[in-house]
Amino acid sequence: MEFRRLGRSGLTISEIAYGNWLTHGGQVEEDAAHACVRAALDAGITTFDTADVYAGTRAETVLGTALAGHRRESIELFTKVYWPTGPGRNDRGLGRKHVIESCHASLRRLQTDYVDLYQAHRYDPSVPLAETMTAFADLVRSGKALYIGVSEWNAEQIASGSALARELGIQLISNQPQYSMLWRVIESEVVPTSEKEGVSQIVWSPLAQGILTGKYRPGEQPPADSRAGHAQAGQSMQGFMTDDILGRVQQLRPIADDLGLSMAQLALAWVLQNRNVAAAIIGATRPEQVRDNVAAAGVTLEADVMTRIDDVLGDVVERDPAKTARG
Fold it and tell me: Which of 18, 99, 92, 30 is nearest to 61 (CA)?
């Protein structure tokens, strides 16, 4: 495993992070989820990412149980707040009441006294940014969160949040966007602003929810045991399931073969070539997927390989910065 600093901070995280969106508490049984977490730890992953809303709060509970007994200081534990976690009017958003209460609930589910990174899962235009950042600052000062991050904020929002964080004496050190060979909407605006503000990217869906593994082929039904074949989990990936995209992805296989990499390793290595990316978040339903994915850490792709990838994918790549948070 290789490690990188997160933002302009002293926090070091693993290049491959383990996330449990769509899997823990949902797509896989708890025993399988625990096996994947053990495989991640055995492979050198130290960074674990979740959110209060995943699987209706069950994902945090599963992860907390899976990590119970492991030395807390040797891992970096991240979670998020924003989406509804209950029926009440204040069970959602980034108002002070929900931010504070959701953090306390996450800590209980994760069986820990603090999280290393507490993230705003989206931007909330209905709440003054000062209220949100002040609530985050209070959590940092109380020791319940060590650092603050955001997810799917655009460049202007990141700049405003960073400025306010500095005024409050805390560090906003990360953004968690969707980013992959197929989805590059952060490159033109979010990444340059983040570099200026001392913010790193912790990217989700670096495999385009499994599309870039090459397991899905044009004109064929997805395997029944795959994410795309899962009635609920597969809904979020339908935009990638076109014959054009699937055909282009198959053309990446010779590139991966030439490098001695699996398709997943090639896709993960690709996002890690971006110097503003601190980690790529992987999900897994089986331990062997974890072991395959971690081999992408430390891989360098030469310029000619990056060009070959661009030539293959061509105009199926999404680059529009206006689509931030729409993936």
Answer: 30
Calculate the average pLDDT of the chain: 92
In this prediction, the residues of the chain whose per-residue pLDDT falls under 70 are 23-28, 222-238, 326-327
194 neighbors 158 (Cβ within 8 angstroms): yes
Q: Please confirm, yes or no, whether 216 is among the known catalytic residues.
A: no
Which pTM does this prediction carry? 0.91
Question: Is 186 in contact with 201 (CB distance < 8 Å)?
Answer: yes
Q: Give which of 283, 211, 263, 240 is closest to 27, Cα–Cα.
A: 283
Label each residue of 271-305 as H, E or C. Answer: HHCCCCEEEEEECCCCHHHHHHHHCCCCCCCCHHH
- Catalytic option among 54, 118, 147, 179: 54
Rounded to an integer, what distance in angstroms lies between the CA atom of residue 182 and that of residue 207?
A: 9
> What pLDDT score does 44 carry?
96
CATH class of 3-208+262-298: alpha beta
With contact defined as beta carbons under 8 Å apart, do 129 and 137 qualify? Answer: no
Domain ranges of the chain: 3-208+262-298
With a CB cutoff of 8 Å and minimum separation 6, the contacts of 223 are: 215, 229
